[in-house]
């Protein structure tokens, strides 16, 4: 048997038509062992390829036994807990990292990211937006939008209220996993599929999209857009922005290197290498004209910002007299306050 890409045993929500709305995987596995793969395949109807297989109560006993025989105690304990549930259950088996074609497949890949098993751009999410439905995320769980009015009426008749927290394709990450060693001040601002590295603090106005994240440690007070990865020791100031893969940024993958600072209300449309600073309020895109200065503040040349991609120790600033955007070597080391960013 060839190696599988991923396996997840999940419990989720379906609408009245039996269609999946979301799936929770307590312990997703990347590159499962042969023993785990054989145990899951032996107890399910798996044939080949990428499949999401509904699990019925009759399969759970044999699945648990197979997992325990294979030494997969943690997975077996999950299956044992599933026996007590009346919720829809699924075994999602990915033979390869193809584009997700079902909701359980998409959710498994989002879990791989938020469980820190893969980093942004480390898993194929092509077409995910078209696979996932818009869902009402409520205090009663995920509800199909077509079924929401009736659910609200029934709740009112029972003296209850359904609180609709948001309507979106992606739920908040912390309803599925809370990575170790992080602080997230406003959990609704971090989507499932975000990779939040240990030592990261996401403040109230910070935002981290799916397939994006931080190496950690770091301070996020601005926006980490889809596809953007922030290196260790970097600080994104309040209200700042990074142009993501969904923001019309072309084919340039935006990233932030180690020990960088993007000032408040600033932004980037180019990747930053290590130890770079963008001053507050300055937004740099690939085509921005930048005057390069030497260590005596004399003009060396004028280039487009994209020509500076990959260069370390740069300081981007706006000349307060002329308004011109300038770049010179950054002589200031960016070091995060260890006490402030200790999340243990």
Explained architecture:
This protein is α/β, with parallel strands linked by helices and 344 residues long. The protein is 17% helix and 28% strand. It has helices spanning 34-43, 57-69, 73-82, 103-114, 128-131, 148-157; strands at 6-14, 20-25, 29-30, 51-55, 89-94, 135-138, 141-144, 164-168, 183-184, 194-196, 200-202, 207-208, 212-214, 218-220, 223-224, 229-230, 234-236, 241-242, 255-256, 261-262, 267-268, 277-278, 283-284, 289-293, 299-304, 314-318, 325-329. The chain has a ten-stranded mixed beta sheet, with no helix packed on it. The mean pLDDT is 93.
Which structural traits does this protein have?
about 350 residues, alpha/beta, 10-stranded mixed beta sheet, 6 helices
User: Span from first to last CA?
Assistant: 42 Å
Main pleated-sheet profile: 10 strands, mixed
Average predicted local confidence, pLDDT? 93
> What's the oligomerization state?
single chain
Based on CA inertia axes, which overall geometry fits? elongated
Q: Which band does the percent of strand residues land in? A: 25-35%
Low-confidence stretches: none
Which class best fits the helix and strand makeup?
A: alpha/beta
SSE layout and pairing:
Layout: E1 6-14, E2 20-25, E3 29-30, H1 34-43, E4 51-55, H2 57-69, H3 73-82, E5 89-94, H4 103-114, H5 128-131, E6 135-138, E7 141-144, H6 148-157, E8 164-168, E9 183-184, E10 194-196, E11 200-202, E12 207-208, E13 212-214, E14 218-220, E15 223-224, E16 229-230, E17 234-236, E18 241-242, E19 255-256, E20 261-262, E21 267-268, E22 277-278, E23 283-284, E24 289-293, E25 299-304, E26 314-318, E27 325-329
Parallel strand pairs: 9-11, 10-13, 11-14, 12-15, 13-16, 14-17, 16-19, 17-20, 18-21, 20-22, 21-23, 22-26, 24-27
Antiparallel strand pairs: 1-2, 1-3, 1-5, 4-5, 6-7, 6-8, 24-25, 26-27
Helix pairs in contact: 1-2, 2-3
């Amino acid at each position: 048997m060839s190696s599988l890409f991923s396996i997840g045993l999940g419990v989720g929500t379906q609408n009245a038509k039996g269609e999946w709305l979301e799936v929770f995987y307590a312990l997703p596995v990347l590159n499962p062992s042969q023993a785990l793969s054989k145990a899951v395949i032996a107890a399910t109807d798996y044939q080949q390829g990428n499949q999401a297989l509904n699990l019925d109560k009759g399969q759970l006993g044999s699945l648990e036994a197979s997992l325990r025989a294979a030494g997969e105690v943690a997975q077996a304990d999950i299956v044992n807990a599933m026996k007590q549930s009346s919720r829809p259950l699924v075994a999602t088996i990915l033979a390869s990292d193809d584009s997700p074609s079902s909701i359980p497949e998409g959710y498994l890949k989002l879990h791989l990211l938020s469980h820190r098993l893969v980093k942004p751009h480390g898993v194929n999410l092509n077409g995910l937006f078209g696979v996932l439905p818009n869902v009402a995320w409520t205090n009663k769980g995920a509800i199909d939008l077509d079924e929401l009015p009736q659910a609200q009426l029934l709740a009112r008749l029972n003296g209850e209220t359904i609180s609709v927290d948001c309507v979106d394709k992606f739920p908040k990450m912390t309803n599925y996993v809370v990575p170790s060693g992080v602080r997230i001040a406003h959990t609704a601002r971090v989507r499932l599929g975000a990779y939040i590295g240990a030592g990261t603090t996401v403040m109230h106005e910070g935002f981290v999209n799916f397939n994006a994240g931080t190496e950690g440690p770091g301070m996020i007070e601005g926006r980490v857009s889809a596809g953007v990865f922030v290196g260790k020791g970097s600080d994104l100031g309040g209200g700042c922005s990074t142009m993501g893969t969904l923001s019309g940024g072309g084919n340039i993958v935006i990233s932030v290197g180690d020990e960088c600072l993007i000032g408040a209300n600033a932004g980037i449309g180019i990747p930053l290498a290590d130890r770079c600073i963008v001053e507050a309020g300055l937004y740099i895109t690939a085509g921005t004209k930048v005057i390069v200065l030497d260590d005596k503040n004399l003009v060396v040349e004028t280039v487009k910002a994209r020509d500076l991609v990959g260069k370390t120790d740069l300081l981007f600033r706006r000349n307060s007299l002329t308004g011109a955007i300038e770049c010179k070597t950054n002589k200031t080391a960016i070091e995060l306050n260890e006490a402030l960013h200790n999340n243990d």
